[in-house]
């Protein structure tokens, strides 16, 4: 009899414990979260190729049960008033209903536009900025992935060439290097010969750093010193107007400013290139 009572007590305790687990863990799933896959996309054309369709993805980035949408899901968007590109000039909408559809059974959808390649501004970049506002079927917009900037570029950079570069470190130490060869591995993308206080080939086979020039505004991707030969990071400082890492002042002069990490603390370098 005692054994029966003991077994009944254990069973009741097990049920009680199971109820506690259910109380402590809410098994209902959170809403699915959608947003743009990338916050920035550059569209570059330097000749009139006619209207070209380009697409920009948004996707399911979290929440829910991890499964694709079971029904078509509409994501609403608005055009940010800060946009400088104009419908009918740089671009045309494929449809202008203000919605992007993620098809049933899929985890992503595309925002399509026609790029009017012959009408991009040849002297300055323009932007179309989209803001996601709402999602159907109980999903929500990710606050960190709600904005997309499409940058239209019709100006082809002429920065590549041979320069004299003067490098000033933040403690006042100055170095001058010549010839400083600026190469162009891709349109509007460039690589220097030197970085910081190190001449070409002095500490690694390639001591250059990478940057991009879009209509005179220079940006630098986060990168490792000497094309990854060292783990020290080389990072732009957003010193120039518009939060850029450098500026092209003329056909024969541009500047950059970046920071290199060291164990003792970072150093900043201002670089003036003249040809």
TrEMBL record:
The lineage of its organism: Bacteria, Pseudomonadati, Bacteroidota, Flavobacteriia, Flavobacteriales. It comes from Flavobacterium amnicola. InterPro entries: CalX-like_sf. PROSITE patterns: PROKAR_LIPOPROTEIN. This is DUF1735 domain-containing protein.
């Amino acid at each position: 009899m005692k054994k029966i009572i003991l077994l009944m007590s254990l069973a009741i305790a097990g049920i009680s414990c199971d109820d506690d687990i259910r109380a402590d863990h809410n098994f209902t799933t959170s809403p699915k979260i959608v947003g743009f896959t990338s916050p920035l996309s550059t569209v570059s054309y330097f000749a009139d190729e006619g209207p070209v369709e380009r697409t920009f993805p948004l996707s399911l980035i979290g929440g829910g049960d991890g499964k694709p949408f079971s029904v078509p899901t509409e994501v609403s968007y608005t055009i940010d008033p800060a946009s400088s590109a104009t419908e009918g000039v740089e671009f045309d909408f494929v449809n202008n209903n203000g919605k992007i559809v993620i098809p049933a059974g899929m985890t992503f959808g595309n925002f399509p536009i026609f790029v009017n390649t012959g009408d991009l501004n040849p002297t300055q970049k323009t932007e179309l900025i989209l803001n996601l506002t709402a999602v159907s079927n109980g999903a929500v917009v990710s606050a960190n992935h709600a904005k997309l900037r499409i940058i239209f570029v019709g100006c082809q950079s002429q920065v590549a060439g041979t320069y004299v570069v003067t490098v000033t470190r933040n403690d006042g130490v100055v170095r001058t290097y010549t010839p400083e060869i600026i190469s162009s591995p891709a349109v509007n993308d460039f690589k220097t010969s030197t970085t910081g206080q190190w001449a070409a080939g002095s500490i690694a086979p390639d001591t250059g750093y990478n940057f991009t020039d879009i209509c005179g505004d220079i940006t630098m991707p986060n990168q490792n010193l000497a094309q990854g030969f060292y783990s020290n990071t080389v990072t732009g400082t957003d010193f120039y107007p518009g939060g850029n890492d450098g500026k092209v002042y003329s056909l024969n002069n541009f500047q950059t400013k970046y920071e290199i990490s060291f164990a003792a603390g970072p150093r900043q370098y201002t670089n003036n290139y003249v040809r």
